[in-house]
Amino acid sequence: MRIFARRRRFQRNARLTLYKLKLKHNMHNKLTTSIIALLTCAAAAAQKTAGVTVANNSDKARRHAPVVIQLDKTDMNVRRAIVTADGVETPCQLDDIDQDGRADELCFMADVEARSARQYTVTLYSTGRPQEYVPQVYAEMLLKNKKIKAENKQDLYISALTVDRGTNPYWQLHHHGAAFENELVAYRIYFDHRQTVDIYGKYRKGLELKQTQFYPDAGQKAAGYGDDVLWVGSTLGLGTLRGWDGVKPTMLDNVERRSQKIIARGPVRTIIEVKDEGWTPQGAAAPVDMTTLYTLYVGRRECHIAAKLEGADESTRLATGFINVKGSTEYSDRHGLRGCWGTDWPVSAKDSVGHKRETVGLGIYIPEEYIASEEPADKHNYAYTVKPIDGKLNYWITFGSDNETFGYHSREEWFSYLSEWKKEMEKPVEVTVRVKDKR
Hints:
Elements: H1 2-45, E1 47-56, E2 62-70, E3 80-85, E4 88-90, E5 92-95, E6 105-112, E7 116-125, E8 138-143, E9 156-158, E10 160-164, E11 179-181, E12 186-189, E13 197-201, H2 209-212, H3 218-222, E14 227-228, E15 242-244, E16 249-250, E17 257-264, E18 269-279, E19 288-297, E20 303-310, E21 318-323, E22 329-332, E23 337-344, E24 358-365, E25 371-374, E26 381-386, E27 392-401, H4 411-426, E28 430-438
Antiparallel strand pairs: 1-7, 1-28, 2-6, 3-4, 3-7, 5-6, 8-9, 8-11, 10-17, 11-12, 12-13, 13-14, 15-16, 15-21, 17-18, 18-19, 19-20, 20-27, 21-26, 22-23, 23-24, 24-27, 25-26
């Protein structure tokens, strides 16, 4: 009997222990569910919605008008954004310009008819990952892989490179520096004391640098891929920013630390950062730290160049402009817009085998407040001397290739385009942001 009694007590205690364990497990589940629900609510609440009005006050429709919304005054770390218009999602991107881990700008493109406005809804989230869209722009930096001989199959991709004084990586970098494109045009920036901006013209619209890497092979050329269309040498290329010695442009020598970095890769714009730290321009009393951003948007020919010079003063003078293409015709409105149309070999004489003479149109627009002087053309350049205002300098460059099936094919057409382009640059769309709710 005692044995049976002990067995019953053991079974009763075991059932009681099991019940307590089940109760504890259920309480844990309820607590976990409550925490998850709380976190879900918090995540849902960590968003802001704004209405954005994009107004076009010009007499011409605007296509691919850049809309950039500053996020520095937003009291949230924006991780994801959705932009819609008329219920349709519009590709956008978040960019961390200063590379501090927080998005500084939201960018998207707007199409707005003449004398009208279009409404967009922007929703910002503090959680999640950026929306994925089909890339409409592309950027790359590559180191040369000595094991790969083909010029269009290099595989050592990098995002940034910094070198100290005395180190020149020009020959170790494939296509000599960062390259970037949209469906219309492509640019590259030399990584050396010249920092020349060079161009790549296309026959058809589309992204192709991933395939050609700026150097198409014979098969790609036969298939209609583009190519380098401008010989730049030591000239200003297209919009290269350099020093000024009072007579002529000077190279960016005397730089303590030089770098290039891909800040943004798309889907709607690329941003390349070039830094020259500890640069002592000729005649300067103290070193200057210069950071230059090159921004290219989808659907736009022009590249925006924005320089920030720490340590510069009102006497600082720089030079920019573009190469005097042999036999070119110049166009200038004497108020910051200048261009040319001409034909020349795109490479040096010794490398001309397999190339043809290329006809290009070049253009630059510099707001007048930055212009110190428009220099007379010489055999090398159409140059300007420019001055930063409050340590900043902004201007735009553009180009077209006569190879294009979609572009301009005479100096008259090109100069007419430049005139209309300046009007658009001077009168961009107006953007108004209204916060709809704040949760």
